[in-house]
Amino acid sequence: MSLKLVNISKIFNDPDHPQKQVKAVEDVNLEINEGEMVSFLGPSGCGKTTTLRIVSGFETPTTGEIWLSGEMINNLPPNKRDTAMVFQSYAIFPHLSVGQNIAFGLELKGFDKKVIKEEVDKIMEIMNLQEYYNRRPDQLSGGQQQRVALARSIINRPSVLLFDEPLSNLDA
């Protein structure tokens, strides 16, 4: 597995000035090999989140190519990419329990209910979430919500796991 970004740029129209454009990301070139961990550090507004959203498929680059394991994935929707993203806001479903949130991706992929239950139980134990299986997200602390979001992402075993502001609610 490798992830390669080639000349990635993203330009947005400025909502306050319709004739003006904003360069959120400009000419990013990056190659990440299997097993490597990379952090984007920079001030607010420098394009860190936009770059992650481009890799995960939630944003389309204005220019450039995204390659994952030798395949250009620019035109693949997020659910067809072998990536998972833990959003700064966690994006966990408020109407689903912790267990249902974690199982969601496997259910979408059509896994057998027994396999889903086994996988969810395993990941909940790893993430120390067993006692929260039936709780709703609003009944959890910020750190617990973050662990649910992480569990929901890693249960799918993506090749690339992306974190937006990963330390915002870190707990043990």
Q: Portion of residues in helices? A: 25-40%
Tell me, what is the CATH class of the largest domain? Alpha Beta
Supply the helix-strand structural class: alpha+beta
Counted up, domains total 2
Proportion of β residues? Answer: 15-25%
Biggest β-sheet description: 4 strands, antiparallel
Question: Which strand order do you get reading across the main beta sheet?
Answer: 2-1-3-4
Question: What is the end-to-end distance?
Answer: 30 Å
Number of strands: 6
Rg, Å, rounded: 18 Å
SSE pattern, N- to C-terminal: EEHEEEHHHE
Shape: globular
CATH topology of the largest domain: Rossmann fold
Topology diagram in text:
Blueprint: E1 2-13, E2 21-33, H1 48-56, E3 63-68, E4 71-72, E5 83-86, H2 98-108, H3 113-126, H4 142-154, E6 160-163
Parallel strand pairs: 5-6
Antiparallel strand pairs: 1-2, 1-3, 3-4
Helix pairs in contact: 2-3, 2-4
Write a concise keyword list for the protein shown above.
Rossmann fold, globular, 24% strand, four-stranded antiparallel beta sheet, alpha+beta, two-stranded parallel ribbon, 172 residues
Give an account of the 3D structure.
This protein has 172 residues and is of the alpha+beta class. It folds into two domains: 2-76, P-loop containing nucleotide triphosphate hydrolases (Rossmann fold); 98-163, no CATH class. The protein has four helices and six strands. It has helices spanning 48-56, 98-108, 113-126, 142-154; strands spanning 2-13, 21-33, 63-68, 71-72, 83-86, 160-163. It has a four-stranded antiparallel sheet with strand order 2-1-3-4, covered by helices on one side. A two-stranded parallel sheet has the order 5-6. Helix 2 (98-108) crosses helix 3 (113-126) and helix 2 packs parallel to helix 4 (142-154). The longest helix is centred in the C-terminal third of the chain and has 14 residues, at 113-126.
